[in-house]
Amino acid sequence: xxxxxxxCALVVSLALAAAPNAARAQSPRADNGLARTPPMGWNSWNxxxxxxxxxxxxxxxxxxxxxxxxxxxxxxxTIDDCWQVGRDAAGVLIADPARFPGxxxxxxxxxxxxxxxxxxxxxxxxxxxEGREGSYGHEAIDAKTFAAWGVDYVKVDWxxxxxxxxxxxxxxxxxxxxxxxxxxxxxxxxxGENQPWEWAPATGNLWRTTGDISDNWNxxxxxxxxxxxxxxxxxxxxxxxxxxxxxxxxxxxxEEYRSHFSLWAMMSAPLIAGNDVRQLTDSxxxxxxxxxxxxxxxxxxxxxQDALGAPAFVVQSPHPDVQVWARPLADxxxxxxxxxxxxxSTTIRADWRRIGIRTKTAVVRDLWLRSDIGTLDGYGTTVxxxxxxxxxxxxxxxx
Length: 399
Ligand code: GLA
Hints:
Layout: H1 2-26, E1 40-43, H2 45-48, H3 54-66, H4 69-72, E2 76-78, E3 84-87, E4 93-95, H5 105-113, E5 117-123, H6 139-149, E6 153-157, H7 166-179, E7 185-188, H8 196-199, E8 206-208, H9 217-227, E9 239-241, H10 254-266, E10 271-273, H11 286-295, H12 298-304, E11 313-319, E12 322-328, E13 334-340, E14 346-350, H13 352-355, E15 361-366, E16 371-376, E17 379-383, E18 388-396
Parallel strand pairs: 1-2, 1-10, 2-5, 5-6, 6-7, 7-8, 8-9
Antiparallel strand pairs: 3-4, 11-12, 12-13, 13-18, 14-17, 15-16, 15-18
Helix pairs in contact: 6-7, 9-10, 10-11, 10-12
Bound molecules: alpha-D-galactopyranose (GLA).
Residues 45, 80-81, 128-130, 157, 189, 191, 212 line the site of alpha-D-galactopyranose.
């Protein structure tokens, strides 16, 4: 009898312990099935700010289809802030008629016609950061409007949101997007101010972890320091977003941009180019040629897009400026980053055990040199100031 009662109590407490998970699994939302790998694309903000137009977006789509970006995986062409000028009598958002003659739908059609996807921007508060109409109180109609226009991706900002609760407002938008019936990637942009890593994985496909990036080394580095703390939370369909890329905008050196791009790839960050990608087609400028070389490095992109979506960690740091990052990949190899944060070059060495390789030897491939280095029992090399050496290390079975 006592035994039976104990057994009953055990069953009840096990059921209770499982309940929160069961509730989560049944909640109407979380997984819209999108962004199984980090989204890739382009966004207007970092380079063009408010200077957006249909013409620009069409030229960007043309360029991405022609310069190799689309084929390398950059899919979403997103207009950021400033496309909207108000609402009509029915409450539908109106695009600036001077800059977007004909409205958004034909533009989305054009982008789709180039084999790309179309993204747009709004704000969960009353106004956008540039003072345009926000979606607060209009979530359902805006989601329906975006779906009708053929939008595939929505970035939702957090200006003019005083007194609102981020978790609640973004859940309202999530549900509105789901109810729209169109698959739309949901990008949450509240700058990491409301601990999004605690709730955003059940709400959006990506969430900003920090304030805005600027086109300089210190800004990029500060973002890495913050964002990497949340590495464990990311998973297929739900990614930390350390903000859009500055590669090609001219404020960092080639080494620094390579570091920026490599770090984003190690972190499984969304790869959203923020430069004038029109310049990558037949460009003669050094900055544009470097940007092209960086943004189109398919072996680095493959690390970012790895199906496992496993987090990267710093596994060795003999000095605060010297780091070895490592991350397991789906094929059993490791992505490894030798990262020199200092302003003088230095030698950095990766130990196989520390990066999670259990065999004695492994094949080392340098992803920036695009060449195999050899079959080795560890690897050390000189890393330039503010630079990286990025490797794929594949274990070789011991005899
Ligand atoms: C905020 C966002 C930026 C950009 C601007 C637009 O600052 O974080 O990425 O969208 O708003 O106003």
